[in-house]
């Protein structure tokens, strides 16, 4: 399949890219990893007249801890996150998530920024970033603004990014001591979109009581869903089997899946319940229960 | 029609160039503009991995990247694996261990395995399966492909040890 014709623009700096975006408005699309955009162009689901390729902009690809955050540059490839020692040791939820996205070749090009900016509820990072309480840095002609992840996903394929803005950084708050997270996904085959998936991030106090809980769900609604009832229920509790089971029920109640080729809605609710249970258990294990 | 772009890529050690439409996919550039048909078009939807090439040291699916994006890059395709008339140990492994039947997925399998062994010269079975998880094979059931990659890993390590031993 040959994508429709477009003009190719290759800015070397962010201001140059922003000028292109301003000039071409809705006719322009940002080309980052391209692993969602190019397939969509082949299918004519996207037909941008201009592609602004940001891959040649220097300094947008990094994973570093700074000022109490893990900072991931807007152009950072999934493979770089997957092989980052700090992610592997301190951010198991991010590591789990990155490893189940597509396959090695796709992860060599696909970016975390693109995974979020695409606004696809079937993508994996959105729920993970919600569970972690991440922030999105958007850069536009007027400068930078920080968008809390809770208000980033507006609807199906729609985010809070303005047409003239570029997602330039993702900031994840550094986890306090005794934190742990896990991402569990059911997919038909390696590299597939999630039938359903659950991201959990928990922090315990010195008595083993949960004092921070982030739970979010992948591909069971038009946007990633924050399982607020389950989070509130876990807060202040010392987790045991009954508590975990109850939280899993609450998370499943927040899911809004629909019937599709991956399975009927009732099956997906069941998946969310079981995956939440297992993800909480793994997160607690990693937090050093 | 959109403005054409001059694309220069070092392919298998040789500078190549062509002026193409920006929408030309890398796999078509390799096959049609350069005439290197070892890289296959399989599913054309980023699933099967038959079009895998090594771009600046990393595997990519050449059906899901535009040729213009690779301007200035270095690419290795299956044609670049042989050297001095000798099969690459991976090619030898696929031959010896029956790592192919119809052969359609083989170029992609070879390139993914090549990148894996660059990164991890002595992979476990599980690591080999991870390394080829973006490549589909409908014939072999993967068993012999895994054996072929491990055959090559052993041969490459043996060759390296022999070369080092010879120097001492």
Please specify the SSE layout and strand pairing:
The complex is a heterodimer of chains A (289) and B (168).
Chain A lengths: L6 E3 L4 H11 L3 E4 L5 H6 L7 E4 L9 E4 L2 E5 L4 H5 L2 H6 L1 H8 L4 H6 L2 H6 L7 H8 L2 E6 L2 E6 L4 E3 L2 E2 L6 E8 L5 E8 L9 E9 L5 E9 L6 E2 L1 H7 L6 H14 L10 H23 L2
Parallel strand pairs in A: 1-3, 2-3
Antiparallel strand pairs in A: 4-5, 5-10, 6-7, 6-10, 8-9, 11-12, 12-13, 13-14
Helix pairs in contact in A: 5-8, 9-10, 10-11
Chain B lengths: L4 E7 L2 E7 L5 H8 L18 E4 L2 E4 L12 E3 L12 H8 L9 H14 L5 H7 L11 H25 L1
Parallel strand pairs in B: 1-5
Antiparallel strand pairs in B: 1-2, 3-4, 3-5
Characterise the protein shown here.
Chain A has helices at 14-24, 37-42, 78-82, 85-90, 92-99, 104-109, 112-117, 125-132, 228-234, 241-254, 265-287, and strands at residues 7-9, 28-31, 50-53, 63-66, 69-73, 135-140, 143-148, 153-155, 158-159, 166-173, 179-186, 196-204, 210-218, 225-226. By secondary structure, chain A is an alpha+beta fold. Chain A has 3 domains: 7-56, Uridine Diphospho-n-acetylenolpyruvylglucosamine Reductase, domain 2; 63-173, Uridine Diphospho-n-acetylenolpyruvylglucosamine Reductase, domain 3, CATH 3.30.465; 179-284, Enolase-like, domain 1, CATH 3.30.390. In chain A, the strands form 4 sheets. Chain A has a 5-stranded antiparallel sheet. In chain A, strand 13 and strand 14 (225-226) form a beta hairpin. Chain A is globular. Chain A starts with 6 loop residues before the first strand and ends with a helix. The mean pLDDT of chain A is 97. Chain B has 168 residues and is an alpha+beta fold. Chain B has 2 domains: 5-80, Ubiquitin-like (UB roll) (Roll), CATH 3.10.20; 89-167, DNA polymerase, domain 1. Chain B has helices at 26-33, 89-96, 106-119, 125-131, 143-167; strands at 5-11, 14-20, 52-55, 58-61, 74-76. Chains A and B meet through helix 2 and helix 6 of A and strand 4 of B.
